[in-house]
Amino acid sequence: MENNNIAVGLDIGTTKIVAMVGRQDAYGKIEVLGTGKAKSLGVHRGVVNNITQTIQSIQQAVDEAESASGEKIDNVVVGIAGQHIRSLHHSDYITRSNSDKVIDENDIERLINQVYKLVMLPGEEIIHVLPQDFKVDGQAEINTPIGMYGGRLEANFHVVVGQVSSIRNIGRCIKSAGLELGGITLEPLASADAVLSQEEKEAGVALIDIGGGTTDLAIFKDGIIRHTSVISFGGNVITEDIKEGCSIIEKQAELLKTKFGSAWPGENKDNEIVSIPGLRGRDPKEITLKNLSKIIHARVVEIVEQVFLEIKNYGHDESKKKLIAGIVLTGGGAQLKHIKQLVEYITGMDTRIGYPNEHLASNSDSDLSSPLYATVVGLLMKGLSDNEKHLSEDLKIKHASDTDAAGEKLKTPKKTVFEKWGEKLRDFLDNAE
Question: Of 112, 124, 329, 429, which cross-links 120 as Cys (Cβ 3.0–4.6 Å)?
Fold first, then answer.
């Protein structure tokens, strides 16, 4: 894939693995060239638990995307999620040796690197360190301290932590599937890029991404991510409950959920019945839609209440932290009938369903604007913006080397913390062969 303006997002989910190939059109929108989808067999609650099966599913999705797009895929941007991801808040400070010089990027980097040295639980590693706001010599609520004078630089951080082994397993699967890890990002962040507007992020919004195995939450306020968390159940537990409650097989339960399911039991009449063919030679089963939606309702309430607890923990009740834009629901679980009404009823917050279509070119396949594809569209966007960054860096360096006859030392652009981390993971995988 020599073509520089093409990128591939790979969403390794619990129920499905999706690869999406795309490029930017003249208007800055995303033109999807092809997608591939495979049933995900080796992933449980967002964590790889069967390497061989996951590799096969990745290869299947990528092959499908290759033949649909006619492009050779060798480099992918991957999302990480899973029940092992947690976030915490931390404050740290540095004392500057020379307070007569203004604060620059190096000071901030020194402070961020200090946070990376925090001692975590065994097997955990810090993935993301996101500064929230700074204090200079006790003066609080500074967004960017660069250019200010001061001796003591303090900051509050949002720190995202995950299990090293789980993330390395994903890296190992990508490598074994014959692909290169182009970039890695948190799935809630990718989904947020795809479905939230800048205004919503400013006003304060909670993004709830209901996947098959996990439900991801990302909270934004004043344009900055403030809280992330992964709740360890999603749409699959609903299917599981229908299966148990109605004594039917999983395939039928999934169909019932998607075709007839509703999160609001009040609206089905008692006499609405679905008949399900029995297993070989047995009588068909009759299931009332009222019972079906009662089962679904109970589970969805549980998921939403757990997410709402996280939103309250973040501090939504404080006036300064109020999420004015309310809640945006996305992911496959957002397709459940009446889920928006139920979420509004439980949380009392404005709710809308998030579709990733805003960033897609107008001639895109309408299927792609389903909330199901929010994460993979976000990963694709990340890949494209990375390409652009590298392209402009290469041009800058080329331009600089053309003009830089004085032999001055070139300033290389700063890598983001996440890019560095991705490189570290790549090195580890290369050495582990």
Answer: 124
